[in-house]
Amino acid sequence: MDATPAKRRRARLSITPYLFISPWLLGFLLFTLGPLVFSLTMSFYDWPVVGERSFVGLDNYRSMLTDDPAFWESLGITTRFALIYVPFNIVLSFLLALLLHHARFGAGFFRTAFYLPSVISGVALVMIWNWIYSEQYGLLNYMLSFAGIGPVNWLGEKNLAVLAIIIASLWGLGSTMLILLTGLKGIPRELYEAATVSGVPGWAQMIFITLPMLGPILVFTFITSIIAAFQQLTIALLLTKGGPQKATYFFAMYIYDNAFKFYDMGYAAAGSWIMFLIVLVLSMLVMRWSAAWSYYEGELKSEDGGRNA
Amino acid sequence: MRKVLLHSALTFLAVLFILPFYWTFLSAVKSTAELYQFPPVFWPSEWHFENFAASWNKLPFNTFLWNSTVVVMLSTIGQLISSSLVAFGFARFRFPGRDALFILLLATMMIPWDVKMIPLYMEFNFLGWINTLKPLIVPAYFADAFFVFMLRQFIMTIPLEIDEAARMDGASNFDIYWRIHLPLMLPGLILVGTFHFMNAWNDYLGPLIFLNDQSQYTLTLGLALLKNPHDLDITAIAAITTLLCLPPLVLFFLAQRYIMDGAVGSAVKG
Amino acid sequence: MKTVSTWIAGSLVASVLSLAPAVQAEEVLRFATWDSDESLAIEQAIAKKFEETHPGVKVQVEAYGGDGYDQKLAAGFGAGNPPDVMYMWNFPQYYTSLMPLDDLIAKDAAALDIKDIPEGLLNASRIDGKTYGMPAGFTTHVIFYNKDMFAKAGVEEPKDGWTWDDLRAKAAKFRNEAAKTYGFAVDAKPDPYDFEQFLWSNGTRYISDDGKQLDGYMNSKEAAEVLDMFGDMAKKQEAATINVGEVTSASTLFKGGQIAMMEGAMWNKSGIDKSGVKYGVAMLPAFKGKPVQSAISISAMSIAKDAKSPDLAWEFVKFYTSPEAIAMRKNDLPVRTSVAESQGMTKDPVFKPFFDILAVSTKERPAFLKNPKWAQIQENLAVAIEAAITEQGNAQAHLDEAVQRSKRFLK
Fold it and tell me: I want to staple A251 with a disulfide (CB 3.0 to 4.6 A). Which of A78, A99, A189, C271 is the partner?
């Protein structure tokens, strides 16, 4: 009597979907799970790079949250950065993608041009931004001088330095823009044609066709921008080294320093887990919230999907 | 009129985006005297193109180039295959544990590299992969979360009716993936290819941690060897950077037209 | 076309398959260095020399320039796969995984002639009385000055026994706002390790010798005096202020003829040589009535505790510190007095100040050897230095805050 539902359940459970996701599953088990468990363990230890390790329970977390001003300061800086960077990154990328979408001449050239900054990395980025922001020799101040604006010490003043980092980060929006552009290109043109024939104005087409059709892609850029904002390290590390006077000391840099300057691996791991939780919660909120407005196609039921397994 | 406005806006922005790259190129060919001149020199009086060869020959950059090429080519292939398979699995099936697994997948994007580094090193060391290119290639065959997530979102914008129609014609799941979604995904795959190419090409930390011997070094490690902390050789760094940018740029320029007016659109029509 | 791509794909795969950690008949010794560029070329040349005299041995020089070195070493040690031989400065962090060298030094005393190496250079690699590193090169700090600028301005060149008051008086004469030339450069973000030399010279130090006390040291009157002096030099434009904002170095300004004097070390010399500036070298100035001291930066060679072949590693370290190898190092100073003397360096006016100041700079131990949490404390100190230089004064308040914030590391 009990056998029937169990049997049916087994019949419904198909192996096909697992086969499709097996590369990631395997990779997760091979290259991610181990390090993850390891780092969680580390976070409960006083764990120098070499030498004796000792279990300290929640001490790392406790002292980080209650005793370490640098933790809250860097978290504050990162949060403020994210609040500005994330919306700007998405809106500007979207506007740029729209511009490109309608470009008729030289589309390939423009696409390449806007992606260009994302191709440059590391040492060269420092050189370039140093040159742009330089107080005496900088391009920015050179251009501002025509407008009669005196030399500004972009990287030397606390608030300006944060702004400088935001601008430098946004300069690399080429990837986000490309993702959105690809999404735009994927929207069937018939939808717009039909709407135009029915006399739907452009702004309404944007709200009722473009944005909903782009929904899943926007969710993706939203979540990945949040992650990028919290993991922001390279530009600040290379350009300002967290200065002036810690004004651009991001949370990721705080973790980095604990690991590779202070060699306190347990403490760094604890910081990483706190960052991890924050970003995870934010991403889940975005997912939850997006489910309400975004246009999702359903997925195959596995009863049907399993047919050919 | 609108088109003129649009294109002049685009041109203005493009100049802003290109200028810094142009300056990097200039720094490579300028004379030392003009390097620090103010107001900035936008058209040098002498062009020292020999700086490129001189900088390239300072270190065995040919070897570094070969290593980078091996890593980038092989890992890109792996990333394309694996991430598209996994994305299809997450986008088009409902199966027990799917949502939990997907959240897990998202979560893996959020782990900072700092803490993964030592355990990963231990693992690769155990496998005997340290000082080989394998740690930089093999993981790409196991689908990166970022690309899975991205491709999944692209697949979700494709109407389900297409799959159902194919199924009516007797197509298997793999057929649907291979014959319908892979072509439809082409723009997305171009993005995966481009982004992964760039990540692998510009990766510094991975090669730094996993490679030991100069004969295994990639281009980014070679570039770092030019960096003297007390006395920066701007000309050499700018020259190598310029050269490093060229292959991805050319490839991107060639690939980007496939992002053009949706393969998706025509498929839906048909 | 197809065959070409097949060939490329084939050779790609083949090369990966064959790229197991190069299986060689010879013995491989891993040697990691933080040097890049010219200094790296010198190291490679020394390694080649060693290979010539040791057939069947391959020295794998692993160069991780700049910030990469610390990370690479952390990963290697953390995962139990460090290089056999490596450059080392952070002894407090790593000594438990390094091989104590005292027995080996004693065993080879005759060949090694350890007395030829100044005691001050060996001290920096000692923890709890054990030696964990052999110095291979070092540098002290000096003042470089531009002879042409001095002649043109009619300013008398620095003399032995000069003081900061002398330096400031000279520097003031180079101030030219229009041409943006100055007498000196004040760095808002100096390496705190080097910066302690000014505190030593003014009779204080960052932290007490037992490593337990910051109050009254880092924020002492003497420490504040040093910072206020540099702040005042910036304010009165006796010096250009660098590293408030964009990253520059004094040597860039010096090479461009924009400052007449700079504080520097051996690592600046080859760049200045190449720039063509005609320069002289002077000892660091003293604070009036107090003995001057310099920070000593040492490249020391250490052997990992679980090096695969400790004997070979020690052979290599010995060769590296032999007169022959040391004579090849042109980018830092010879650790052997005999080499310095035979090359006439101790008489050469350019090199003499480096050695003169070494002789009087062995009294203090750098702060990082005294407290295991020094790296954390140093972060707060660096902010205080930067703030005091940027605000051109108010050093006491900033140093007090740094001490306050560092209290939790003294427990």
Answer: A78
- CATH number of the domain encompassing residue B213: 1.10.3720.10
Query: If contacts are CB pairs under 8 Å, which of residues 14-33 in chain B contact chain A?
Result: 14, 17-21, 23-24, 27
**Which pLDDT tens digit goes with each residue over A125-153?**
777 888 888 887 788 888 888 888 878 88
Instruction: Give the range of the structural domain holding residue A226, as residue numbers without chain letter.
Output: 43-308
- Total structural domains within chain A: 1
Taking residue A138's Cβ as centre, other Cβ atoms within 10 Å add up to 25
pLDDT tens digit sequence for C280-338: 999 999 999 999 999 999 989 999 998 888 999 999 999 999 999 999 998 899 999 99
Strands (E), C232-356: 239-242, 261-264, 279-282, 297-303
Domains, chain C, ordered by start: 26-139+297-359 (3.40.190.10), 142-294+373-409 (3.40.190.10)
Residue B112 is assigned to a structural domain of this protein: yes
Interface contact B95-A119, CB threshold 8 A: no
Q: What ipTM does this complex have?
A: 0.86
Count: domains in chain B: 1
Contact predicate B67/B128, CB 8 Å:
no
The per-residue pLDDT for B257 is 78
CATH number of the domain that residue A78 is part of: 1.10.3720.10
| Residue C326 · residue C339 · CB < 8 Å | yes
Strands (E), C89-209: 126-127, 130-131, 134-139, 142-146, 184-187
- Per DSSP, the three-state class of B147 is helix
Structural domain harbouring B141 = 60-233+244-269
Is any Cβ of chain B less than 8 angstroms from the Cβ of C79? Answer: yes
Count of CB pairs separated by less than 8 Å, B with C: 103
Residue A299 confidence (pLDDT):
41
A11 falls within a domain:
no
Does residue A26 belong to any structural domain of this protein?
Answer: no
Tell me which of A293-302, B99-108, C143-152, C178-187 is least confident.
A293-302
Beta bridge partners of C62: C32
- Specify the DSSP class assigned to residue C131: E
Predicted confidence (pLDDT) per residue in B179-212, tens digit = 999 998 888 999 999 999 988 998 888 898 899 8
Q: Which residues pair with A46 in a beta bridge?
A: A54
Whole-model pTM: value is 0.87
